[in-house]
Automatic annotation (TrEMBL), chains A, B:
DNA-binding keyword on record: yes
A Pfam family the protein falls into: TetR_C_16
Organism of origin: Streptomyces cellulosae
Residue intervals of the HTH tetR-type domain: 8-68
Protein name, entry field: TetR/AcrR family transcriptional regulator
Record key words, sorted: DNA-binding
DNA-binding residue intervals: 31-50
DNA sequence: AGCCGGAGTCAACATTGTTGACCGAACTTC
DNA sequence: GAAGTTCGGTCAACAATGTTGACTCCGGCT
């Protein structure tokens, strides 16, 4: 490898410019020329460095979550903790999530979203649960979690958006807790 | 209005061709020229009839739901009925839902999705509920319902997709029922 | 007959992602 | 030090996209 001066910084510029634009404007509404302009370089270089706009998107749009709050909390508070985590997911995560959802018309982006859902929500929850239906409960809870983000950010439910954070945490926490550790084992009560 | 022979049928051809293509391939992956070819006409005519690709999309992608199953079921079976309704939503509805979700990067399509979510899920449920927090419960149930479609169709959770329909109905029905008509009024147990 | 309004056709435009040809500089090799 | 190779950068071009304008054509009105 040759000159490390301008090359790495240019690639880095393209990367961060693309990340910011994809987050704020989504996949289809950001153009390669915009990315190049923001990075102060040429559209052709963007493609040269990252092969295609789609690969650049996949390389920049990673959604990560800090597992630990879910792993070190007592099991009976897992629902509440997950609700807090979801509602504290800030601006950057919101942009990445929406970009993935909107872009997932593209097959590769859909794969990325599938993987993200799997090991961002399902896996950590699955690890805390036991019993024969642990997998189903983890997946259901993940679906409920995704449903919250969907309602807030994708569908944009104004009623939920205007709600008090504390009440949302309390309600969704209880709901998730019921899914994760059901109060009654499904069957009819036997007193 | 002049010749009604070829004109209406052409407009109709464009409409149905666009609907089919948008449903199966989404907004960004279907081109105006594809629509024109499928309808056996000229790309320029597509625009002339519907002003723009986006307006054509909005005119064709309507997601409707039969309210009655939700309105005539006894309240204590509303959750189960809603779960059945969601899981029976067939191929055409799936395509429209996904097209709306994927396309909602576009502001007008986002508005359409917001309205659809509101008066497809929230409104019918809201109408069945009473009490001070009826609105919140309806919106939460709608979020859970949207979460199921999100997990199945958008994220593509293989674990849920492979599940038995009856078990999914049973589980999600109970979950939705708990949201709609909570078992305990929120407070801690007093034995 | 003569006009007029709308349907249809064709060519063009700007913008998109992407590619290929060329240039220059820096490092390797003799 | 000279030659060569490899990579970053620039520019022009390509095909495909949504959209527009000019033009034709035809049915129904005055």
């Amino acid at each position: 490898m040759l000159q490390t001066g301008s090359s790495v910084s240019t690639r880095e510029s393209i990367h961060s410019a693309a990340a910011q634009l994809f987050r704020s404007r989504g996949y289809s509404r950001t153009t390669v020329r915009q990315i190049a302009a923001e990075a102060g370089t040429d559209p052709a270089l963007v493609i040269r460095h990252f092969k295609s706009k789609e690969l650049l998107f996949l390389e920049t749009m990673h959604l990560t979550l800090d597992d630990e709050p879910l792993l070190d909390v007592p099991l009976e508070r897992l629902g509440e903790r997950l609700a807090e985590l979801l509602l504290d997911l800030g601006g950057s995560a919101r942009g990445v999530f929406l970009a993935l959802v909107h872009g997932s018309n593209e097959p590769h982006i859909h794969d990325r979203l599938r993987d993200t859902h799997e090991h961002l929500f399902v896996e950590p929850l699955r690890r805390r649960l036991t019993g024969p239906d642990a997998d189903v409960r983890a997946r259901t809870a993940a679906a409920v979690a995704g449903g919250l983000l969907y309602a807030l950010w994708v569908a944009g439910d104004q009623g939920l958006l205007r709600m008090d954070r504390a009440e949302l945490v309390s309600r969704y926490g209880a709901l998730l807790q019921d899914v994760l550790t059901p109060r009654t084992p499904e069957g009819p009560r036997t007193p």
